[in-house]
Amino acid sequence: MYEYISGKITELTPTYVVVETGGVGYYIHVSLQTYGQLGGKTEARLFVHQQIKEDAHVLFGFAERRERELFRLLVSVSGVGPSTAQLMLSALSSDELTTAIATENVAVVKSVKGIGQKTAERLIVELKDKILKVSAGMGVGDMKTALPASNAKEAVSALVALGFARPATEKMVEQVWKENSTAGVEELIKKALQRL
Questions:
Q1: Strand, helix or coil at 37?
Q2: Confidence band (pLDDT; 50, 70, 90) for 141?
Q3: What are residue 20's DSSP bridge partners?
Q4: Parallel, antiparallel, or unpaired: how do β-strands 4-12 and 16-21 relate?
């Protein structure tokens, strides 16, 4: 599995980009969000999601890790494939989509072409709790906060290794961090342990 691909942009369209690195040109599908962020640039670093099908290996690229995590959440829902998820991230910004799902706004989710009432409701039901982690930058998402991702991940991993359930641990680490945004790994673990 690839984490990201960095290199020279040799072709850029609203639906895909070709990034050359090490003498190889990678054809990477992108959303309009990512396309907008790449406009005018000659170099790119894209976080990628690889889909392996019987007849092809397809790469989807994202300018931000958070957008990729949101894409992965979307495709985890039954009935939502990579093309639909890419379309959703092109029609709505990551913030608009996470807000719509978190606030159970079916009308906004349904406004995306190809998303009907049932699919919109299923997306909201299945992703409401998970989407909050992405928008808060905890757990699945990329850390948009002052807390380095490694600190939170280390704290959560250590607590899970001690036998605590991951969802409860992630919530507790997030609460501790909100109270003290300068806390290091050890302090996060100690304070979370007191409350678990």
A1: helix
A2: very low
A3: 8, 25
A4: antiparallel
Q: What is the dihedral of CA 142, 145, 147, 148, to 10 degrees?
A: 40
Residue range 59-87: mean pLDDT, rounded = 92
Are the C-beta atoms of 46 and 19 separated by less than 8 Å?
yes
Q: From the centroid of its chain, how far is CA 28?
A: 17
Contact 128, 102 (CB under 8 A): yes
DSSP reduced 3-state for 177:
helix
> Looking at residue 94, what is its pLDDT?
85
Give the position of tokens 């959560």: 156
pLDDT of residue 27: 96
pTM for this model (two decimals): 0.67
Q: What pLDDT, on the 0 to 100 scale, is given for residue 181?
A: 65
Asked whether the beta carbons of 33 and 94 are under 8 A apart, the reply is yes
Number of H helices, E strands in the chain: 9, 5
Annotate 78-146 with DSSP letters as a single string. Answer: TT--HHHHHHHHHHS-HHHHHHHHHTT-HHHHHTSTT--HHHHHHHHHHHHHHHHHHHHT-TTS---SS
